[in-house]
Amino acid sequence: MIASVHIPRRRGRAALLAAASLLLAACTGPETDAGTPAADPGTGHLHGLGVDPADGTVYAAGHLGVFRLSDGEAVRAADRYQDTMGFTVTGPSTFLASGHPSPTDPDARSPHLGLIRSTDAGRTWKTLSAEGEADFHALQQAGASLYGFDSQSGRLWASADHGRTWNKRAKQPLLDLAAYRKTPETVWAATGKGLERSTDGGRTFDAVPGAPALIAVDATGPGMLVALAADGRVLSSQGGRNWTEHGRLPGGGVPTVLTAVTTQRLLAADSTDTIYHSSDAGRTWKILHQSTQAAEDH
């Protein structure tokens, strides 16, 4: 059964109260000497990026919510502060995610959100499955198949009914997943040290020889991969055999996120919570959004 959920974050009882107090203070107080509220804490570290096909808007999912990017600003969806992980856009105004509840939500039922879905571009969310059990750090839709990496079990989960029920498959540490809609049984896993490939829907994985140390990977066609290396290089490959370097992510942060909207249009983020956009396969980049601290450091 699909249940409505208010989205919040994990702790033991004492830690939850302490975190709630801190976040509430950051979001709604304390006031400055001039009597104005303190500044919004921003996105927090970023977990995912995507484009809503309904209107072409870029969305970012972070430690402190889901954000709509507009004119260089990141606007929090519906004033929600959930720790949003495994974020992926699956259709017009339709998002899947996981993570942890916000410490300020009094209706939080569990420290792990399981699989949640929004059909109104992040304004509201419903629980689909695995609440209290799974913490999906990566989610990948591939045709009728949905894959999720659960950080709690260290396993890849697979669903054939849009995430309502799951089969638990290989135990495979990973940072990111990729699969293409026309070849859903082929699953790629970026591990931070290399690349793993499954040809049986995630039941087994084998290392891809000679693959760079990848922290993110996306599939834009059958065997067509776009990836982000730990050193910031943006790469592409057909089947993982040979790799072509197209450019490098700018800035001084550690690369963390890559989404290939198309083979040419890429979104990326780094540890400074800066969001980048490329329209030429990663050869050049422009900043879509930069945190206040990152801007000050520059």
From TrEMBL:
<protein>
    <submittedName>
        <fullName>Exo-alpha-sialidase</fullName>
    </submittedName>
</protein>
<dbReference type="InterPro" id="IPR052025">
    <property type="entry name" value="Xyloglucanase_GH74"/>
</dbReference>
<dbReference type="GO" id="GO:0010411">
    <property type="term" value="P:xyloglucan metabolic process"/>
</dbReference>
<feature type="signal peptide">
    <location>
        <begin position="1"/>
        <end position="25"/>
    </location>
</feature>
<keyword id="KW-0732">Signal</keyword>
<dbReference type="InterPro" id="IPR015943">
    <property type="entry name" value="WD40/YVTN_repeat-like_dom_sf"/>
</dbReference>
<dbReference type="InterPro" id="IPR054817">
    <property type="entry name" value="Glycosyl_F510_1955-like"/>
</dbReference>
